[in-house]
Amino acid sequence: MVTPGGLVVLTDRRMARRPLTWVVREAVRGGASWVILRERDLPYGERSALAASLRALLPAGRLIVAGPDPLDGDAVHLAAVDPLPSGRVTLVGRSCHDFSDMSAADYVTLSPIYPTRSKPGYGPPLGPAAAAGVAGDVPWLALGGVDSASRAAECAAAGARGIAVMGAIMGAADPAGVAAELITAFQDRLGAVMPSPAPTLPGERDESTPCQAGGADYPQAAGRGGVWRS
């Protein structure tokens, strides 16, 4: 199973400065590799059609639908109070803010990491280091106020699998540029904190395998059970 990583975009059509599909397309062009479709207030037919439109902009399996209905997909992201899906899905994420039960989640978003303009007063902020302690061995995405290169880098240094961004992308005049700035800072810092693999001695076979996150190969990183689930 591949769990979300890198730059993950959360949608909010009301916050978007241009049509939502255009904003997502530009964010993907800038380096975003996963999208979580929110818009839970839309009628079913409209939301299903929007999901189909966004899937066309992404590699297969990279659209995650908020709520227990995957809308003809196989990946969902649940709120703290959402039940597990009744049908078959291959990827389940959950929004967490504290030491919640994460046993049924393949990954979690932890929020808010920083004060956020999208949801003022929502908090208090966890901070990257505390979020890492909350997540433990579960792959986690940093959500909330990750709106600058320095903050993206701090989240990578703390061990975040990726950064989940809404307001900074939705409200941007140049979503591709913002996406590129955030993912570059995140990946650069992630590369700096990842240990280099030990050299292979003559006669030994190199059994290390890469872990794919956010569309790029990274050295294998610790996750649930000691390795990232992929």
Automatic annotation (TrEMBL):
In terms of superkingdom, the source organism counts as: Bacteria
Q: Which SUPFAM superfamilies match?
A: Thiamin phosphate synthase
Which UniProt keywords are given for this protein, alphabetically ordered? Thiamine biosynthesis
Q: Name one GO cellular component term.
A: cytoplasm
Q: Which InterPro entries match?
A: Aldolase_TIM, ThiamineP_synth_sf, ThiamineP_synth_TenI
Name any Gene Ontology BP term. thiamine biosynthetic process
Provide the leader sequence positions.
none
Q: In which pathway does it act?
A: Cofactor biosynthesis; thiamine diphosphate biosynthesis
The answer to whether keyword Transmembrane applies is no
| Keyword NADP attributed | no
Q: Which Pfam families match?
A: TMP-TENI
A single Gene Ontology MF term assigned here is: thiamine-phosphate diphosphorylase activity
Q: Which residues form the Thiamine phosphate synthase/TenI domain?
A: 7-169
- Which portions of the sequence form the region Disordered? 197-230
Q: Which PANTHER family match?
A: THIAMINE-PHOSPHATE PYROPHOSPHORYLASE, THIAMINE-PHOSPHATE SYNTHASE
What this protein is reported to do is described as: Condenses 4-methyl-5-(beta-hydroxyethyl)thiazole monophosphate (THZ-P) and 2-methyl-4-amino-5-hydroxymethyl pyrimidine pyrophosphate (HMP-PP) to form thiamine monophosphate (TMP).
Name of the protein: Thiamine-phosphate pyrophosphorylase
